């Protein structure tokens, strides 16, 4: 059976950018591609590449799990699991590190951006992060990996490593394709529309979190940065602010930019923003209700147990196979 795999780091509260650029897309794919086996995980090992408080990390892992399900991922169709509960990810990472070069990792723009922000020094984990991501992926032989645009470079590196290991060890990996949504692959910050909406942005006003209450959701949209032109027109190069709001509108309603522009001809930002605030709130409200029912439920633990068991089953076979090809230990029987 063909496979699709992706993951998100539990580094903070999930925001509208991650939801529209990533989770909503997983849900669409799960329904559109019933012939594929899905693996969607919580990348907690990735989260500790930059120090996290223990209580905070535990809380965010659980929250992300509940949000996945609340957003519509169906545990009957998707294996949902926590990365650190599948030891093969770390084992596989080590072997891949021995097939990746310092120069390749030094070129990663996410590493360069994040390294700049570290006051207490850059960990080796942050540097080698893309090899863990390659391990996450290659273990499961997925055909497709749905991600936002910012992960494209990591996917390209994963493909390079896969090809290199395939040449050395007799075609052991499927070389995966990224699946990047045409619209919504990059939702920008509400306060600086030239930057992506990110959970690690210190300015809370830059984003809408999935669990934000109605008044905050509407306030954030109302105060989102636009320009002084005043017309509702999609033009990301010259008018990133209003274009970002149009993107959010379009991904949620499935309306094309042209249709939205037509609907708001002669109407100003104030009314448009009021409508958009309501649209975002109506999208998030049922998700928040489901989240509240799930977060402390046994059901959630059962889902994660089942996902972990299936992931371990697939992953341990793969890592043992690679260890045999490399010549590690004694031949496995
Ligand atoms: P951090 O800020 O901690 O680096 P992040 O929010 O940038 O985290 P993740 O939560 O790990 O990143 O991203 C999960 C998925 O969501 C990835 O596929 C990523 O490409 C996508 N994503 C994250 N932010 C956005 C955004 N603003 N627009 C579209 N997709 C996004
Ligand atoms: N690096 C990704 C999260 C991530 C991931 C993965 C995505 C870790 N492992 C494997 C897809 C496949 C991020 O920061 N968004």
Detail the topology: elements first, then pairings.
Elements: E1 3-8, H1 16-32, E2 37-42, H2 44-47, H3 54-70, E3 78-82, H4 88-97, H5 102-106, H6 109-116, H7 124-138, E4 144-146, H8 152-168, E5 177-179, H9 214-222, H10 240-253, H11 257-263, H12 269-294, H13 298-326
Helix pairs in contact: 3-12, 4-7, 4-13, 7-8, 9-12, 10-12
Bound molecules: adenosine-5'-triphosphate and L-tryptophanamide.
Strand fraction:
5-15%
Bound molecules: adenosine-5'-triphosphate, L-tryptophanamide
Low-confidence stretches: none
- How would you sum up the major sheet? 3 strands, parallel
> Kindly state the mean pLDDT as a whole number?
96
Question: What is the terminal separation in angstroms?
Answer: 25 Å
Number of domains: 2
CATH domain topology of the largest domain: Rossmann fold
Q: From the helix content, strand content and strand pairing, which structural class follows?
A: mainly alpha
Shape assignment? globular
CATH class categorisation of the largest domain: Alpha Beta
The helix/strand series, from N terminus to C terminus, equals EHEHHEHHHHEHEHHHHH
CATH architecture of the largest domain: 3-Layer(aba) Sandwich
Question: Would you count the extended β strands for me?
Answer: 5
**Number of helical segments with 4 or more residues:** 13
CATH superfamily of the largest domain: HUPs
């Amino acid at each position: 059976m063909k496979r699709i795999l992706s993951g998100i780091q539990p580094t903070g509260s999930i925001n509208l950018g991650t939801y529209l650029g990533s989770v909503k897309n997983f849900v669409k794919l799960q329904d559109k591609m019933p012939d594929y086996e899905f693996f969607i995980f919580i990348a907690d090992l990735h989260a500790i590449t930059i120090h996290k408080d223990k209580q905070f990390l535990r809380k965010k892992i659980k929250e992300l799990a509940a949000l996945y399900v609340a957003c519509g991922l169906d545990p009957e169709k998707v294996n949902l699991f926590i990365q650190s509960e599948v030891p093969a990810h770390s084992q596989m990472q080590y072997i891949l590190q021995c097939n990746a070069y310092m120069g390749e990792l030094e070129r990663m723009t996410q590493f360069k951006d994040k390294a700049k922000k570290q006051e207490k020094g850059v960990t080796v984990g942050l540097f080698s992060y893309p090899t863990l991501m390659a391990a996450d992926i290659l273990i499961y032989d997925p055909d497709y990996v749905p991600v936002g645009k910012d992960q494209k470079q990591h996917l390209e590196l994963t493909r390079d490593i896969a090809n290199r290991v395939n040449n050395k060890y007799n075609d052991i990996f499927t070389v995966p394709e990224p699946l990047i949504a045409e619209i919504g692959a990059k939702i920008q910050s509400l306060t600086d529309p030239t930057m992506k909406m990110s959970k690690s942005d210190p300015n809370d006003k830059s984003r809408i979190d999935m669990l934000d209450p109605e008044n905050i959701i509407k306030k954030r949209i109302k105060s989102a940065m636009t320009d002084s032109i005043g017309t509702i027109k999609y033009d990301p190069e010259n008018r990133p602010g209003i274009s970002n709001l149009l993107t959010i509108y379009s991904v949620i309603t499935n309306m094309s930019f042209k249709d939205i522009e037509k609907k708001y001809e002669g109407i100003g930002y104030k009314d448009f923003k009021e409508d958009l605030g309501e649209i975002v709130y109506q999208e998030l409200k049922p998700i928040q209700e489901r989240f509240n029912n799930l977060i402390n439920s046994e059901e959630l633990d059962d889902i994660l147990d089942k996902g972990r068991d299936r992931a371990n089953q697939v992953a341990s076979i793969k890592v043992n196979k690679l260890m045999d090809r490399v010549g590690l230990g004694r031949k496995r029987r």
